[in-house]
Write the structure tokens for this entry.
Amino acid sequence: MKEMITQTAGRQQLGEFAPEFAHYNDDILFGENWNNGDIDLKTRSLITVVTLMAQGITDSSLKYHIANAKAHGVTQREMAAAITHAAFYAGWPKAWATFNLAKEIYSDPIAELTEKDKYQNTIFFPIGKENPYGKFFVGQSYLAPLSTEQVPVYNVTFEPGCRNNWHIHRAQSGGGQMLICVGGCGYYQEWGKEPVELMPGTIVNIPANVKHWHGAAPGSWFSHLALEIPGEDASTEWCEPVLNEEYNRLHG
């Protein structure tokens, strides 16, 4: 799954003072340019380090991009070789300044990214913490409240093979739930019907009083936004788990 770069520094620091610049920084420079797949992120990050060094920009921005290069797989040996090569063209003092920053960055080991960390880098919304409703799931799930006002919105993330139990959103009128899929691959199934594959951008409208389940595909993480539709006497009735035999038969 392709890793995506998401940047919000422009809006955080200049959103009110220079909103147009913040837009160009976050959405164009980092949003479109950095996510252009013609150059992989490792190569792109190393090019950025050398470009800043050549301009003599050895402030916090260069330090950030050296750390970014390290995070995207540029080894200490590769970084040293790139700076040494560029020194002959950009200047020896600039190389010295860059090496001082690089030594600081590479002397601070970073933990290897977990599968959860890697998946988080592919989606916009936070994964959140372990799901407090985990007893109604097979496998590991996570829950991130995004809004608890007006219409409650939660990001629900499933590890590969995780799914919730069969359940029903009860309501006398109104009610139900809407799912907006935002990452990975999953499935949704109503009782007595065939499962439906879910991909980013898929929207599922779940009527009230319909028995169903949803979760990740066997080999994929999966996330969806869950929007609770207001209803009269609304509640959730949890039923039996989706058994391994049933799940594997449906998606095997």
